[in-house]
Design brief:
By secondary structure, the protein is of the alpha/beta class. It is built from 25 helices and 24 strands.
Length: about 800
């Protein structure tokens, strides 16, 4: 006899075959011959397992075939699905084109007050709104667009109330190829769009053709939309939280809500998870059980069958209503497996249910492994399965004591298991999470969620409203308690991304600590923890022998991070929008934290344009800033808007600052104190020098200032790197500047195919004709230059050249 491969192991191999394709750096271009060879191989393995008589089988070969078959099937499906998702994106040649389309809205529209996003912030319009939604194209003037999924925005419209889930529209849209900023340690928006199979993003061209409503909402989307309208009409103080818990719609959450939940480690309570699906299934199981008992009086049947069906239908309906996130899909599958075993009076191991859920989720969404929610959901469940493995219901102690022990054990297991994913995905962890979740989870599961769900099931009226008012009251109390906890216990801690060695130690210690009682070497987990915590301290050994200059990919804006010998400097912070998004908070801060920064020693803001200074407040909210430098009165004005006290200074030609081995010399402006710092020609111009390496930072200066610099510093030596002025606008980067600075390399910071047209082709050609090596964040993502002591040539890394297969680099991405 040969060793048999269990169904659990086969499911794991199948899931692993799908998942590993998503981690490939490049996908091969597969042909019909490839798929024919693949099918022949799979059929041969099946035939070998079926046709060969039992007595003629070799145990080792048979076991190998049993392992290879699910692995190959999973890999084939993953490759096919991922290749299709990659190919089903708007061709680059059609980027920015206009199309006449008929669409059906396939998501809950996200509605916000309209914000004018061009130039400097001009305030918010009170009678117009911005709407974002996902839609499926039903027909178009270009036939190949039919059936594609697009993400659209309708800016500054007065018709936001007409856009409902499931509604059909005909409209003129401008579509763009899915694209996102790519930086180390930050959220990959482009990968998220690929997971959602988004063909293109874009916006409605209302002035070209008035959008026309063809049909109102219908189906499950209409139900979701009507529930949201009902919540919003009920004027609940915590309506935004009720909306998130019932529908999975977090668009109404405020920054204060998110900060509180993150600080107390309770953000998962508003993420639709197994807790929510389990509560719904339990409620319908109870109702179904009561109905089954009544039915049994007149018709003999398996009493568990109606109850189980009611629970499955209820859980499935809730999963659809909340938008079917990955965590809910996982919970639904495991619930169905458990209920089927209960109805059939069979025992199914938790490992089999877990493996089945994993395989089915990846079968439906092979790119789910790129989603943080996928890892958090499955790791949390795996931790609970490990923590309670081998434990029985008949443990000694009172019922209350056993329950309390189980709650503490489950919270401890989830806290341990999610520590490493939290560091990797969110660059930090909460120190008060264990205590907060100890009371918040039972509070949410026993009081708040049942009231919300009962209010949704009941028709609109006094009884349903009373349920929601009770939930609203309880949510208000919970928020108050969490707020008090946040004030008394240090909450969220930003920490650098762990190294591979620390990650392996952490994973090993956590697995040992969560292993069942009696597992050999279980105590060693405690011995590994000191090394893990030492490796997670928010500092890294100083690197005095290197200089790193990273031009971050912040779209149409500028942000440069400089690090030398453990000192961190930031030159500009990217844009900030009136709607609340900040490149400083979303891009610059996560990058710095991932690189081990605990403070910004010097923050230089070249001038007041929003695409350079818009992220200052967002950056300072996350990381303390020691010194803020800007031209003229701008420095004091910006210092007033940051949450922590900061030393404000001005950049005035002739002055210098030092950060370790790095010297920063100001070349412009000449008279800084009288300037307001808002104009392009007020920009701080700085020369950064480190062990003979010279970097020229120029802000948005024009040709006039460039000529002044040539006159002021006639003996200027060549520079190793030029941060190109004004994103490559044709009003800057003159021949005079290039002859004067003689840069070896130059980097543009610009948005991908932005309507400003940066960098301008004439500027690019001018640089190339001077023999300059040219890079652009639009084509390369974040570009990092690193010089070591005694070397003149830097090591260059481009984010788009070192990430996943879905990222493409453009012509100005000269990295290997």
């Amino acid at each position: 006899m040969y060793p048999r491969i269990s169904a659990t192991i086969s499911l794991w191999l199948f899931a692993g075959g799908i998942a590993q394709v998503a981690l490939w750096p490049r996908l091969p271009v597969v042909s019909g011959m490839f798929w024919a060879s693949y099918l022949c191989l799979v059929c041969a393995l099946i035939a070998l397992l079926i046709a060969v008589p039992m007595g003629m089988r070799r145990p080792g070969l048979t076991t190998l075939c049993h392992c290879l078959l699910p692995l190959l099937i999973g890999m084939g499906w993953g490759l096919y699905w991922d290749r299709q998702a990659l190919d089903e994106r708007l061709p680059a040649a059609l980027h920015g084109s206009d199309f006449q389309v008929t669409v059906r809205v396939t998501s809950l529209p996200e509605v916000r007050p309209a914000a004018f996003n061009f130039g400097r912030p001009r305030g918010v319009s009170g009678n117009r709104q911005d709407v974002k939604f996902t839609a499926e194209i039903e027909s178009s003037d270009v036939a190949t667009l039919a059936g594609k999924r697009v993400q659209l925005a309708w800016y500054a419209t007065k018709r936001a109330a007409e856009i409902r889930g499931g509604s059909r529209w005909t409209m003129r849209v401008r579509l763009k190829r899915p694209r996102g900023s790519i930086n180390p340690h930050t959220f990959d928006y482009e990968a998220w769009l690929l997971q959602q199979r988004v063909f293109a993003t874009g916006y409605i061209r209302e002035k070209d053709a008035e959008p026309r409503l063809l049909e109102g909402g219908s189906g499950i989307l209409q139900l979701r939309d009507s529930l949201r309208q009902r919540i919003q009409a009920s004027a609940l103080e915590s309506g935004r939280l009720v909306q998130a818990l019932l529908l999975g719609d977090k668009s109404g959450l405020t920054d204060a809500d998110r900060a509180l939940l993150r600080s107390t480690g309770t953000a998962h309570l508003l993420a639709i998870s197994g807790l929510h699906v389990g509560m719904v299934a339990g409620f319908f199981l109870l109702v179904g059980g009561l109905l089954s008992r009544l039915l049994g009086l007149y018709w003999p049947h398996n009493p568990r069958l109606p109850a189980g069906l009611a629970a499955v239908l209820g859980a499935a309906g809730y999963t659809l209503i909340c938008g079917a996130p990955l965590s809910a899909q996982r919970a639904l599958i495991m619930t169905i497996v458990a209920l089927a075993a209960w109805v059939c009076r069979r025992r199914v191991s938790g490992g089999l249910a877990f493996a089945l859920a994993l395989a089915l989720v990846l079968l439906v969404q092979p790119l789910a492994v790129l989603n943080a929610g996928f890892w958090l959901s499955f790791i949390a469940v795996a931790a609970l399965l490990l923590a309670f493995a081998g434990r029985t219901r008949s443990e000694p102690g009172t019922r209350a004591g056993v329950y309390l022990s189980g709650v503490i054990r489950s919270q401890w297991a989830v806290l341990l298991a999610l520590l490493l994913p939290s560091l990797i995905f969110f660059s930090g962890a909460s120190s008060s999470g264990l205590l907060a979740n100890f009371f918040a989870i039972p509070w949410m599961g026993l009081l708040i969620l049942p009231a919300i769900m009962l209010g949704a099931v009941l028709p609109a009226g006094p009884l349903g409203d009373a349920c929601w008012e009770f939930a609203d009251w309880q949510l208000g109390l919970l928020v108050e308690v969490l707020g008090g906890l946040q004030l008394r216990i240090s909450g969220w801690h930003w920490l650098p991304s762990p190294s591979w060695s620390v990650a392996v130690l952490a994973a090993g210690s956590i697995l040992l600590l969560l292993s069942p009682r009696g597992f050999p070497g279980r105590w060693a987990g405690w011995c590994l923890l000191p090394a893990v915590f030492a490796g997670l301290l928010p500092w890294r050994p100083a690197e005095p022998d290197s200089l790193r200059v990273t031009t971050l990919d912040v779209g149409q804006g500028l942000a440069v991070a400089v690090e030398s010998g453990g000192h961190h400097m930031v030159l500009d912070t990217g844009a900030g929008s009136p709607g609340g998004w900040s490149a400083g908070r979303s891009v610059v801060a996560p990058f710095l934290i991932g690189e081990g920064a605990v403070t910004v020693d010097a923050l230089v803001v070249s001038h007041g344009d929003r695409d350079h200074a818009g992220g200052v407040a967002g950056l300072a909210e996350v990381i303390p800033v020691s010194r803020l430098i800007a031209p003229g009165r701008l420095s004091a004005r910006l210092a007033e808007g940051v949450p922590r006290p900061v030393s404000a200074g001005q950049c005035t030609a002739g002055a210098q600052i030092r950060e370790g081995d790095l010297t920063v010399s100001w070349l412009w402006p000449r008279e800084s104190s009288a300037l307001d710092g808002e104009e392009n020609d007020h920009s701080c111009v700085a020369l950064l020098e480190w062990q003979g390496i010279r970097v020229l930072f120029t802000g948005d200066i024009s040709r006039d200032v460039e000529r002044r610099l040539v006159d002021l510093y006639p003996e200027f030596a060549p520079v190793d790197l030029l941060i190109v002025p004004h994103h490559g606008s044709r009003t800057s980067t003159s021949t005079a500047l290039l002859d004067w600075s003689q840069p070896a390399r130059a980097v543009f910071s610009a948005g991908y195919r932005h309507h400003f047209g940066h960098p301008h082709p004439t500027v690019v050609q001018r640089l190339l004709s001077h023999g300059v090596e040219v890079f652009s964040t639009a084509d390369a993502g974040a570009v990092q230059f690193q010089w070591a002591t005694g070397t003149e040539l830097p090591r260059v890394r481009c984010a788009r050249s070192s990430a996943g297969f879905w990222l493409t680099a453009g012509p100005l991405a000269g990295c290997e």
